[in-house]
Amino acid sequence: MFKRILIANRGEIACRIIRSASAMGVETVAVYSDADKHALHVKQATVAVHIGESAATASYLDGQKIIQTALDTHAEAIHPGYGFLSENPEFVAAVQAAGLVFIGPSSDAIRAMGLKDAAKQRISEAGVPVVPGYHGSNQDPSFLKQEADKMGYPLLIKARAGGGGKGMRLVSAPTEFQESLDSAVRESIASFGDGAVLLEKFIESPRHIEVQVFGDSHGQVVHLFERDCSLQRRHQKVIEEAPAPGMSDEVRSAMTEAAIKAAKAINYTNAGTIEFIVDGKGPPRVDGFWFMEMNTRLQVEHPVTESILGIDLVEWQLKVAAGEPLPLQQSDLTLQGHSLEARLYAEDPAAGFLPVAGKLHKLNFAQHCRVDTGVEEGDTITPFYDPMIAKIIVHGRTREDAIKKLNDALQNTHVVGTETNVSFLAALNQHSTFVNAQMTTGLIDEQLDALLPDSEPQVHERLLGCLALLKWPENSAQRAFRLFGSASKRVTLNLNNVAQTHRLVFESDKSVHFHTDEHSDEPDLTITLDEITSNQIRYQENGQSFVAHAFVWHSMQSGDAYAWIKQGQLTRTFISANALASESQSAGDTNRVLAPMTGVIRVVHAKSGASVSEGDPLVVLEAMKMETTLTAPRDGVIEAIQCAPEDSVSDGDVLIQLVVDDEDASSQ
Ligand code: ADP
Ligand code: ADP
Ligand code: MG
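# adenosine-5'-diphosphate complex -> structure
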């Protein structure tokens, strides 16, 4: 076995590889970019070497630098993880030319499968069914159109060099063909530097089922059963499972035999996956699956296979790369139970799943599940790489049991600081079509509305947000009630960039009346507050008890206060406009608003004589190339404005004077 290996990757997969290597007594060398200086994989490895700037091309994709680092640190082998250089045959050849071992297949095998057209040709010659279509070399647009018309519609245009769903277009009618071809070619050239495409019949009601294969250098190949990855968005997997629901022994044999045939046809060694598209109208059939492509690496979703077989695929990879035979024979491999994996991302489902960067103020994973992650609390999701936070993996006796466990695991996953897809994942895991195992790859798109939380926060969610944002002395409800005793408090929330001021009236009997419109007399909701701590709110509504998790933090940049609320499956992050600015003021004299730093006044919102509520924006100051909004430190009336737009002001200058509003004072 190797004494030391280098891991040419980052994030969860780098940590995953370190875990197995360490368990085997193999030392690890981590490489990292500027952005990853404090990353978990850097801390966990035996040795860590900085290799370049944050952009992947300057670090994780710099093959020469990585090979030199391996030589310098006396690593004997390189594990590429997935993505980055993992499927780059030139990199594999360079690793070997440097006298190092590549933990993965040969460069020939990667090359044979690297382009989808050549791969289909090769695999079809080996006697494996491939998706019907055109995968020849003639790329003349009018010729391709003829082929398309012959095949009929709907069809898919695919970049032969494609991956990650890029360069793929669905064409439903002949009139759309030319435009789709042009855009597929454009995207393919931009992403892969190759504009060649293939045409494929679009399999309707498709399921994505793939077979994990493993070969050693002694000519043995085994299959490690199948995974169903039909839950996809933009052709990217979201939740994966093993085994595939509804799979009969007969179809399983046919598919796994085909996969082994495909792997043997290219003398495949190490871990690989044969992806099939399956006719999902009814249960899988022996004549209803077709080869799509082969991924010549360890896959993101490999943990579900590990779970049902009780094996460690990274350990297998290291052993096989070191020349050992496969640890188990086909007959030793029996599947047990059912496993699910959900990919947790820092992204905003409500904003079209836009990836979001941000600091993970709080990161809490559930017990009783496997979590593969590359980040820890306090880390930042940077805009440079994939925004994956973690993979959450469960194993159950049955599929039903696994679904229940995944639901629990997602319920108890608390990520604070960035939006995530956790509620979306939970909704997907509970969607009846998935629960009843009737999903096809179109499920997410078709059911998107049902899977997304309401964009407008409901009344009780807003109330929880306001409660969290109010500063609780000693975080105790009793103390708070003593303090507020029948007081009225206003909280301004930023709701989709509209400031909305809510009013909360506290009664001595622990009831809280919530007015979504601060001026309305009738409360929209009344609750009884049982307990409020810095991370939990317990209350009753109509005699029923509820618990919500809460977390509050400030953005140093904008001065905004954030409240994260989680109740059941719903999570919501509320922003209170510039609470920090008002807090720093309120520490001293709350009758004056001072410039917190030297800068230029850009906007003056305040109007002389106007009543303002705590948190209302008064002045916008530009300093350090950033705009800071200064807000009212408390409720009151503007007495004097001592600044105007474009004024240069210095740290500590008085900008606004406030006086106490009589009416408000009497209610305290
Ligand atoms: P899977 O999720 O089944 O392992 P994907 O094709 O979704 O396979 O890709 C896995 C990882 O590889 C992802 O991080 C993805 O961003 C990356 N990836 C996929 N294709 C490419 C490519 N052509 N170039 C660079 N990275 C890729
Ligand atoms: P990539 O290299 O981007 O992963 P694939 O060829 O594996 O490309 O296809 C990605 C996804 O697109 C599949 O998982 C499947 O959901 C869908 N898909 C691909 N080919 C077909 C097809 N012929 N019919 C229907 N869906 C398809
Ligand atoms: Mg694929």
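# post-check
The CA atoms of residues 638 and 658 lie 5 Å apart.
The longest strand covers residues 221-233.
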